[in-house]
Model the fold of this input.
Amino acid sequence: MIKQLFMLPVLLLALFVLLIACGEGEDDEIIHADADGFILMVDDEEIYRQFQGTETGGISLKVGDELDVHVVFIDHDSNEISFEALVGEDDHGEEEDDDQGHDEDEGFGLALSEYDSSIIEIHLPEDHEDEDEGEEEHHDEELTFEVIGLRAGQTGIKLQLLHGGHADFTAALPIPVTVSP
Done:
């Protein structure tokens, strides 16, 4: 009986803390891309799709070829995610800060890593390359990258969608890349 009386205030306190910690007002909304997959496009044609752990296609190019690849992120219904709609403006036309302390004008960006840099070279607009890891990051509303075939072979690319210094989405599978002679 005493044990039950002790447990009631502990449970009520835990419930109170949970409600306060998880409560979000309308102004405290966290801006994240709720992506379930992505599509890679070259010249307005789909070359690769990854959706909820399944994939079709891949990147194929010849040694010396350069491909400009556009990335389109999709939601759970395979609809394109509009990043402009996610990054809202307040009533005064000013960019808003989210509750994690970063400006929404930081935008969304790509990180591409874990590929064999002897087979392909990747360039992002206004590259910020970490030479120790072979990782590149880019922040822009137009999510694109360029792939250059260096030598024949196969590799894979890990793709992440970044926002505010963290990944909002990480591809479940590496993007397959084949470079032919």
